[in-house]
Amino acid sequence: MKKEVLVLIFLVIFSTIKAQEVVKNLSIGGYAQVDYIHPKNEIATVDLHRMVLYVGYQFSDKVSFESEVEFEHVKQLEVEQAFINYRLGSNLTAKAGLMIVPMGLINQTHEPTTFFTVNRPGQDHDIIPSTWTQIGVGLNGTSNNLSLKYQVYIFNGIKSYQDGIPFLRGSDGLRKGRQGGAEGFSSQANYAAKLNYYGIAGLNIGLAGYFGNTQTTDINLKDSYVGISMIGLDAAYQKNNVTIRGQYVFNNLSNTEAYNSLTGRDVGSKMDGFYIESGYNILPLFDEKATEKLVLFSRYETYDTQANVAGLLMKNNAYDRKITTFGLNYFMAPGAVFKAEYQVRDNSVTNADVANSFNMGIGVSF
Predict the structure, then answer these.
(1) Where are the domains of the chain?
(2) Helices (DSSP H) in the chain: which residue ranges?
(3) What angle do CA 71, 77, 80 make, to 5 degrees?
(4) Which of 273, 307, 322, 332 is the most buried (most CB within 10 A)?
(5) Residue 155 and residue 178: Cα distance in Å, rounded?
(6) 118 with 328: CB under 8 angstroms?
(7) Per DSSP, what are the bridge partners of residue 47?
(8) DSSP string, 196-222
(9) Which of 168, 185, 179 is nearest to 223 (CA)?
(10) Assigned architecture for domain 30-365
(11) CA distance 116 to 299
(12) Are strands 336-347 and 320-333 parallel, antiparallel or unpaired?
């Protein structure tokens, strides 16, 4: 019944798009991603990966609401964001509700037109569990004199143990513990913050942190939670036709030996990874007045969800991944892109036979 109600709401909202001309306080937007993934010597998969509707409303000069409803793989429906903003001053806003954790380049800005590859980087799936949303409160502000943007939040956190069921594992770290907004629970507060420096033209540098403990429904069972200390450093440079981006993430996890003993899981005590990528729009070389863009790009990425392990747990070298990607993005319009790429994939297992992959996709955002 819940899904039918959300679908009805979705359709009603879409029917108001025409009314936007008169309902000036209402904002409508969205994005969508379609993938073609073909690992070597395997059957290709085709997928409407996600379609998202954004709806916002400006109640007054001080108060506004923002939300995103996502259809994932057609059959999954969830609310990705739903929060209220309250302006405390010209450069300071309080926020409360279901929000995105400020970590890395992709998590908060994750439309398919904002990253080069068909899918998001691997570390933004397995270390930063994007899209990583949690319920909480916080502040968002800027200091133009210092060229700084800052965000600070208190969140409910990742779940690790619910009614005897464990959620964390070695292959993808915290990902299965995402609660989103669906009947979540909170046993301890978690804290997140991010600082961005934008004082150099074309350059944005970010430093983020996330600290706390995972959530458990058995607060007396000390082995059922894991401590999280995640640090992220990112940078993006854009000038003329050149784009360069990089990101490093380190996550120290405590109490993993006890958690693994209790649950039979294989969660690592440390996870880390980095990537660096570059892109160049070549169309101006042939037509200086071109309004479209053809970006050739490459990315090197390496990350390990068992960079270290505690106790008697044996490290799984298959979780130490390396991915090199070459491809192109054809932006037929600012909000519409066709992507094609080839990925060379490897891990630290001796003589590992990891399938390389040819991928294509389309992305739109509006």
Answers:
(1) 30-365
(2) 2-14, 123-126, 256-263
(3) 80
(4) 273
(5) 12
(6) no
(7) 35
(8) EE--STTEEEEEEEEEEE-EES-TT-G
(9) 168
(10) Beta Barrel (2.40)
(11) 9
(12) antiparallel
> Residues 348, 352, 355, 357: is their CA dihedral positive or negative?
positive
Q: Token digits for 262?
A: 């209790």
List the structure tokens of 311.
């106790």
> What does the block give as tokens for 349?
């297992």
Structure tokens at 41: 């010597």
Could you state, in chain order, the average pLDDT of each consecutive group of 10 residues for the chain (366 residues)? 56 54 81 97 96 96 97 91 96 97 96 97 96 97 97 97 97 94 91 98 98 96 97 97 98 98 97 98 94 97 98 96 98 97 96 94 97
Whole-number Å distance between alpha carbons of 131 and 134: 10
**Whole-prediction pTM value?**
0.91
Rounded to 5 degrees, φ, ψ at 356 are: -70, 170
Q: Which residue has the tokens 């991928």?
A: 359
User: Which DSSP helix (H) or strand (E) runs through 344?
Assistant: strand 336-347
Q: Supply the DSSP symbol for 355.
A: P
Which residue is it, tokens 């389309």? Answer: 362
In this structure, which long-range contacts are made by residues 6-14, counting pairs with CB atoms below 8 Å and at least 24 apart in sequence?
Answer: 6/69, 6/77, 6/79, 7/77, 9/69, 10/53, 10/69, 13/53, 13/55, 14/53
19-23, long-range: CB within 8 Å, 24+ apart, which pairs? none
> Torsion-angle region of residue 212: left (phi > 0), alpha (psi -120 to 50) or beta?
left
Residues 81 and 87: beta-carbon distance below 8 Å: no
Q: Residue type at 33? A: Q
Distance, CA of 217 to CA of 123 (rounded, Å): 28
φ, ψ of residue 25 to 5 degrees: the values are: -85, -5
Q: Taking the mean position of all CA atoms in its chain, how far away is CA 224? A: 26
pLDDT computed for residue 339 by the predictor: 98
Quote the radius of gyration of the chain (alpha carbons, Å): 21
From the number of C-beta atoms within 10 Å of its C-beta (0-12, 13-18, 19+), residue 259 rates as buried
For residues 283 and 264, the answer to whether their CB atoms sit within 8 Å is no
Q: What pLDDT is stored for residue 4 in this prediction?
A: 59
Question: Measured in whole angstroms, how far is the alpha carbon of residue 59 from the centre of its chain?
Answer: 28
